[in-house]
Amino acid sequence: MSPLANHRFLKMNGLGNEITVLDLRGSAHVVGAAEARAIAVDPRSRFDQLMVLHDPVSPGTDAYLRIYNTDGSESGACGNGTRCVAWAMVTDPVMSRPADGGLVLETKAGLLPVTQVSETVFTVDMGPPRLDWNEIPLRDPYPDTRAVAVDTHLPEHPELRTASAVGMGNPHAVFWVGDAAAYDLAAIGPVLEHDPAFPERANISFAQVVGPDRVILRVWERGVGETRACGSASCATLVAGARKGLTGRRATISLPGGDLVIAWRESDGHVLMTGATELEHEGFLSPVVFAGAA
Protein backbone atom coordinates (compact mmCIF):
# COMPACT_ATOMS: atom_id res chain seq x y z
CA MET A 1 0.00 0.00 0.00
CA SER A 2 1.25 3.47 -0.83
CA PRO A 3 2.40 5.52 2.18
CA LEU A 4 0.24 8.29 0.74
CA ALA A 5 -2.96 6.42 1.67
CA ASN A 6 -5.01 8.49 4.11
CA HIS A 7 -2.60 11.41 3.73
CA ARG A 8 -4.16 14.87 4.04
CA PHE A 9 -4.42 17.05 0.94
CA LEU A 10 -5.71 20.50 0.02
CA LYS A 11 -7.69 20.95 -3.19
CA MET A 12 -7.19 24.49 -4.44
CA ASN A 13 -7.23 26.48 -7.64
CA GLY A 14 -5.42 29.43 -9.11
CA LEU A 15 -7.91 31.11 -11.48
CA GLY A 16 -9.46 27.70 -12.13
CA ASN A 17 -6.12 25.95 -12.66
CA GLU A 18 -6.78 22.83 -10.55
CA ILE A 19 -4.12 22.37 -7.86
CA THR A 20 -3.72 19.67 -5.22
CA VAL A 21 -1.24 20.32 -2.40
CA LEU A 22 0.47 17.54 -0.42
CA ASP A 23 2.78 18.24 2.52
CA LEU A 24 5.48 15.55 2.77
CA ARG A 25 7.90 17.54 4.89
CA GLY A 26 9.41 15.24 7.48
CA SER A 27 9.03 12.23 5.17
CA ALA A 28 11.55 10.68 2.79
CA HIS A 29 8.82 9.50 0.40
CA VAL A 30 8.91 10.83 -3.16
CA VAL A 31 5.69 10.60 -5.15
CA GLY A 32 6.01 8.24 -8.10
CA ALA A 33 4.43 8.82 -11.49
CA ALA A 34 1.86 6.05 -10.91
CA GLU A 35 0.90 7.52 -7.55
CA ALA A 36 0.44 10.96 -9.10
CA ARG A 37 -1.78 9.52 -11.83
CA ALA A 38 -3.83 7.68 -9.20
CA ILE A 39 -4.37 10.89 -7.20
CA ALA A 40 -5.47 12.66 -10.38
CA VAL A 41 -8.11 10.01 -11.11
CA ASP A 42 -10.05 10.63 -7.88
CA PRO A 43 -12.49 13.54 -8.45
CA ARG A 44 -11.87 14.78 -4.91
CA SER A 45 -8.15 15.26 -5.52
CA ARG A 46 -8.15 15.72 -9.29
CA PHE A 47 -5.49 18.17 -10.43
CA ASP A 48 -3.85 19.89 -13.35
CA GLN A 49 -0.76 20.14 -11.15
CA LEU A 50 0.11 18.30 -7.94
CA MET A 51 2.32 20.41 -5.66
CA VAL A 52 4.29 18.30 -3.17
CA LEU A 53 6.20 19.99 -0.36
CA HIS A 54 9.45 18.43 0.86
CA ASP A 55 11.97 19.55 3.44
CA PRO A 56 14.15 22.47 2.30
CA VAL A 57 17.27 21.63 0.32
CA SER A 58 19.01 25.00 -0.01
CA PRO A 59 19.74 27.23 2.99
CA GLY A 60 17.31 30.11 3.35
CA THR A 61 14.41 28.34 1.65
CA ASP A 62 11.15 27.23 3.26
CA ALA A 63 10.38 24.10 1.25
CA TYR A 64 11.39 22.12 -1.82
CA LEU A 65 8.57 21.58 -4.31
CA ARG A 66 8.08 18.69 -6.68
CA ILE A 67 5.46 19.42 -9.32
CA TYR A 68 3.53 16.72 -11.20
CA ASN A 69 1.27 16.92 -14.22
CA THR A 70 -1.87 14.82 -14.62
CA ASP A 71 0.02 12.18 -16.62
CA GLY A 72 2.55 11.75 -13.81
CA SER A 73 5.36 13.65 -15.53
CA GLU A 74 7.27 16.26 -13.54
CA SER A 75 7.35 19.98 -14.27
CA GLY A 76 9.91 22.56 -13.25
CA ALA A 77 7.45 25.37 -12.63
CA CYS A 78 3.80 26.13 -11.93
CA GLY A 79 3.03 29.71 -11.01
CA ASN A 80 -0.59 29.13 -10.06
CA GLY A 81 0.40 26.14 -7.94
CA THR A 82 3.18 28.08 -6.24
CA ARG A 83 0.68 30.75 -5.18
CA CYS A 84 -1.56 28.01 -3.75
CA VAL A 85 1.35 26.55 -1.79
CA ALA A 86 2.17 30.01 -0.46
CA TRP A 87 -1.42 30.49 0.69
CA ALA A 88 -1.35 27.11 2.45
CA MET A 89 1.94 27.82 4.20
CA VAL A 90 0.73 31.22 5.38
CA THR A 91 -2.92 30.43 6.17
CA ASP A 92 -3.63 26.71 6.63
CA PRO A 93 -3.55 25.91 10.36
CA VAL A 94 -1.99 22.47 9.86
CA MET A 95 0.95 23.71 7.78
CA SER A 96 3.77 25.68 9.38
CA ARG A 97 3.93 29.43 8.89
CA PRO A 98 7.05 31.29 7.78
CA ALA A 99 8.58 33.35 10.58
CA ASP A 100 8.66 36.65 8.71
CA GLY A 101 5.56 36.30 6.52
CA GLY A 102 7.65 35.79 3.37
CA LEU A 103 8.53 32.62 1.53
CA VAL A 104 11.26 31.28 -0.69
CA LEU A 105 10.31 28.03 -2.38
CA GLU A 106 12.62 25.88 -4.47
CA THR A 107 11.93 23.66 -7.48
CA LYS A 108 14.26 21.88 -9.87
CA ALA A 109 14.08 25.04 -12.01
CA GLY A 110 15.36 27.31 -9.22
CA LEU A 111 14.24 29.55 -6.37
CA LEU A 112 10.80 31.19 -6.26
CA PRO A 113 10.42 34.06 -3.78
CA VAL A 114 6.76 34.75 -2.93
CA THR A 115 5.17 37.81 -1.31
CA GLN A 116 1.62 38.16 -0.05
CA VAL A 117 -0.37 41.05 -1.52
CA SER A 118 -3.69 40.43 0.25
CA GLU A 119 -5.50 37.56 1.96
CA THR A 120 -5.71 35.46 -1.21
CA VAL A 121 -3.44 37.30 -3.69
CA PHE A 122 0.27 36.52 -3.99
CA THR A 123 3.15 37.61 -6.22
CA VAL A 124 5.64 34.97 -7.34
CA ASP A 125 9.08 35.91 -8.64
CA MET A 126 9.39 33.37 -11.43
CA GLY A 127 13.00 34.34 -12.15
CA PRO A 128 14.47 35.28 -15.53
CA PRO A 129 13.16 33.64 -18.70
CA ARG A 130 15.34 31.25 -20.69
CA LEU A 131 15.66 32.63 -24.19
CA ASP A 132 18.55 30.66 -25.71
CA TRP A 133 17.48 27.73 -27.88
CA ASN A 134 19.41 25.13 -25.85
CA GLU A 135 17.99 26.34 -22.51
CA ILE A 136 14.32 26.27 -23.55
CA PRO A 137 15.14 23.65 -25.04
CA LEU A 138 14.66 23.45 -28.80
CA ARG A 139 15.93 20.72 -31.10
CA ASP A 140 17.69 23.09 -33.50
CA PRO A 141 19.96 26.11 -32.91
CA TYR A 142 18.06 29.39 -33.31
CA PRO A 143 19.86 32.72 -33.02
CA ASP A 144 16.48 34.37 -32.42
CA THR A 145 13.81 32.41 -30.58
CA ARG A 146 11.12 35.02 -31.22
CA ALA A 147 10.16 33.07 -34.35
CA VAL A 148 10.71 29.31 -34.34
CA ALA A 149 9.50 27.09 -37.18
CA VAL A 150 7.49 24.03 -36.21
CA ASP A 151 7.59 20.84 -38.25
CA THR A 152 3.88 20.15 -37.95
CA HIS A 153 2.01 21.76 -40.82
CA LEU A 154 -1.72 22.26 -40.37
CA PRO A 155 -2.92 23.35 -43.83
CA GLU A 156 -6.04 24.97 -42.42
CA HIS A 157 -3.92 27.04 -39.99
CA PRO A 158 -0.89 28.51 -41.82
CA GLU A 159 -0.50 31.04 -39.01
CA LEU A 160 0.61 28.20 -36.73
CA ARG A 161 3.85 27.48 -38.60
CA THR A 162 5.97 29.67 -36.31
CA ALA A 163 5.94 30.32 -32.60
CA SER A 164 7.81 32.38 -30.06
CA ALA A 165 9.72 30.05 -27.73
CA VAL A 166 10.44 30.83 -24.08
CA GLY A 167 11.61 28.73 -21.15
CA MET A 168 10.01 29.47 -17.78
CA GLY A 169 11.19 26.38 -15.93
CA ASN A 170 9.37 24.46 -18.64
CA PRO A 171 9.28 24.97 -22.43
CA HIS A 172 6.63 27.23 -23.95
CA ALA A 173 5.59 27.86 -27.54
CA VAL A 174 3.45 30.98 -28.03
CA PHE A 175 1.43 31.27 -31.23
CA TRP A 176 0.19 34.78 -32.07
CA VAL A 177 -3.36 34.61 -33.41
CA GLY A 178 -6.20 36.98 -34.27
CA ASP A 179 -8.83 35.11 -32.23
CA ALA A 180 -7.73 32.76 -29.47
CA ALA A 181 -11.25 31.37 -29.15
CA ALA A 182 -11.29 30.15 -32.74
CA TYR A 183 -9.07 27.09 -32.19
CA ASP A 184 -9.96 23.53 -31.23
CA LEU A 185 -7.28 23.01 -28.59
CA ALA A 186 -8.32 19.40 -27.99
CA ALA A 187 -7.42 18.60 -31.59
CA ILE A 188 -4.49 20.95 -32.22
CA GLY A 189 -2.89 21.12 -28.77
CA PRO A 190 -1.50 17.57 -28.50
CA VAL A 191 -0.15 17.72 -32.06
CA LEU A 192 1.84 20.88 -31.38
CA GLU A 193 2.85 19.73 -27.88
CA HIS A 194 4.65 16.76 -29.44
CA ASP A 195 6.13 18.65 -32.41
CA PRO A 196 9.69 17.40 -33.03
CA ALA A 197 10.99 20.96 -32.67
CA PHE A 198 10.42 20.60 -28.91
CA PRO A 199 12.48 17.64 -27.61
CA GLU A 200 10.89 17.85 -24.13
CA ARG A 201 7.45 18.66 -25.53
CA ALA A 202 6.04 22.15 -24.98
CA ASN A 203 3.21 24.05 -23.39
CA ILE A 204 1.20 25.50 -26.26
CA SER A 205 -0.31 29.00 -25.99
CA PHE A 206 -2.67 30.81 -28.34
CA ALA A 207 -2.20 34.53 -27.67
CA GLN A 208 -4.47 37.29 -28.94
CA VAL A 209 -3.05 40.76 -28.38
CA VAL A 210 -5.76 43.27 -27.47
CA GLY A 211 -3.35 46.07 -26.71
CA PRO A 212 0.12 46.68 -25.26
CA ASP A 213 -1.25 46.03 -21.76
CA ARG A 214 -3.65 43.12 -22.37
CA VAL A 215 -3.48 39.70 -23.99
CA ILE A 216 -6.21 37.04 -24.24
CA LEU A 217 -4.69 33.60 -23.76
CA ARG A 218 -5.66 29.95 -24.04
CA VAL A 219 -3.22 27.23 -23.05
CA TRP A 220 -2.71 23.56 -23.79
CA GLU A 221 -0.36 22.28 -21.06
CA ARG A 222 1.97 19.40 -21.80
CA GLY A 223 1.00 16.33 -19.85
CA VAL A 224 -2.33 17.89 -18.82
CA GLY A 225 -4.44 19.30 -21.65
CA GLU A 226 -6.35 22.56 -21.88
CA THR A 227 -6.46 24.37 -18.55
CA ARG A 228 -8.40 27.38 -17.35
CA ALA A 229 -5.18 29.16 -16.40
CA CYS A 230 -1.42 28.66 -16.61
CA GLY A 231 0.92 30.98 -14.74
CA SER A 232 4.17 30.03 -16.46
CA ALA A 233 2.49 30.30 -19.89
CA SER A 234 1.25 33.77 -18.97
CA CYS A 235 4.81 34.74 -18.04
CA ALA A 236 6.19 33.29 -21.27
CA THR A 237 3.56 35.14 -23.29
CA LEU A 238 4.36 38.50 -21.72
CA VAL A 239 8.09 38.00 -22.32
CA ALA A 240 7.54 36.87 -25.90
CA GLY A 241 5.15 39.75 -26.57
CA ALA A 242 7.55 42.34 -25.18
CA ARG A 243 10.42 40.91 -27.22
CA LYS A 244 8.35 41.22 -30.40
CA GLY A 245 7.12 44.72 -29.57
CA LEU A 246 3.52 43.52 -29.26
CA THR A 247 3.18 44.39 -25.57
CA GLY A 248 4.92 46.41 -22.90
CA ARG A 249 6.85 44.80 -20.08
CA ARG A 250 3.74 44.74 -17.89
CA ALA A 251 0.33 43.48 -18.98
CA THR A 252 -2.83 41.75 -17.86
CA ILE A 253 -3.08 38.23 -19.26
CA SER A 254 -6.74 37.23 -19.52
CA LEU A 255 -7.32 33.47 -19.30
CA PRO A 256 -10.60 31.52 -19.22
CA GLY A 257 -10.29 31.37 -15.40
CA GLY A 258 -9.49 35.04 -14.86
CA ASP A 259 -6.69 37.59 -15.03
CA LEU A 260 -3.03 37.49 -14.06
CA VAL A 261 -0.81 40.57 -13.94
CA ILE A 262 2.64 39.82 -15.36
CA ALA A 263 5.62 42.17 -15.20
CA TRP A 264 9.06 41.63 -16.74
CA ARG A 265 11.36 43.65 -14.51
CA GLU A 266 14.07 45.61 -16.33
CA SER A 267 16.48 45.81 -13.39
CA ASP A 268 17.27 42.10 -13.22
CA GLY A 269 15.13 40.49 -15.94
CA HIS A 270 12.95 38.60 -13.47
CA VAL A 271 9.29 37.91 -14.30
CA LEU A 272 6.72 38.65 -11.59
CA MET A 273 3.29 37.04 -11.60
CA THR A 274 0.43 38.30 -9.42
CA GLY A 275 -2.90 36.54 -9.00
CA ALA A 276 -5.47 35.06 -6.65
CA THR A 277 -5.84 31.64 -5.04
CA GLU A 278 -8.84 29.72 -3.70
CA LEU A 279 -9.23 26.80 -1.30
CA GLU A 280 -11.96 24.43 -2.49
CA HIS A 281 -11.79 21.69 0.15
CA GLU A 282 -9.46 19.45 2.13
CA GLY A 283 -9.54 15.71 2.51
CA PHE A 284 -7.57 12.50 2.89
CA LEU A 285 -6.30 10.38 0.00
CA SER A 286 -8.33 7.20 -0.30
CA PRO A 287 -6.34 3.94 -0.15
CA VAL A 288 -8.59 2.66 -2.94
CA VAL A 289 -7.07 4.98 -5.53
CA PHE A 290 -3.63 3.43 -5.06
CA ALA A 291 -4.78 -0.17 -5.43
CA GLY A 292 -3.80 -0.34 -9.09
CA ALA A 293 -0.95 2.18 -9.02
CA ALA A 294 2.07 0.74 -10.74
Q: Briefly, what is this?
A:
Helix content is 15%, strand content 36%. The protein has 294 residues and is an alpha+beta fold.
Give an account of the 3D structure.
With 294 residues, this protein is of the alpha+beta class. It folds into two domains: 130 residues, Diaminopimelate Epimerase, Chain A, domain 1 (Roll), CATH 3.10.310.10; 122 residues, Diaminopimelate Epimerase, Chain A, domain 1, CATH 3.10.310.10. 15% of the residues lie in helices and 36% in strands. The chain contains four helices and 18 strands. It has an 18-stranded mixed β-sheet that branches. The N and C termini lie close together (11 Å).
Feature tags:
294 residues, Diaminopimelate Epimerase, Chain A, domain 1, 18-stranded mixed β-sheet, 15% helix, 2 domains, alpha+beta, globular
Written as H for each helix and E for each strand, in order along the chain, the element string is: EEHEEEHEEEEEEHEEEHEEEE
Strand content: 35-45%
Distance between the termini: 11 Å
What is the CATH topology descriptor of the largest domain? Answer: Diaminopimelate Epimerase, Chain A, domain 1
- The level-1 CATH class of the largest domain: Alpha Beta
Question: How many whole angstroms does the radius of gyration measure?
Answer: 18 Å
CATH superfamily of the largest domain: Diaminopimelate Epimerase, Chain A, domain 1
What are the low-pLDDT stretches, counting only 5+ consecutive residues below 50? Answer: none
Query: What is the multimeric organization of the chains shown?
Result: single chain
How much helix, percentage-wise, in residues?
Answer: 10-25%
Q: Provide the domain count.
A: 2
How many E-type strands? 18
CATH architecture of the largest domain: Roll
Averaging pLDDT over every residue, what do you get?
94
Q: Shape from CA axes?
A: globular
Number of distinct helices: 4
Structural class: alpha+beta
Largest sheet, in brief, is: 18 strands, mixed
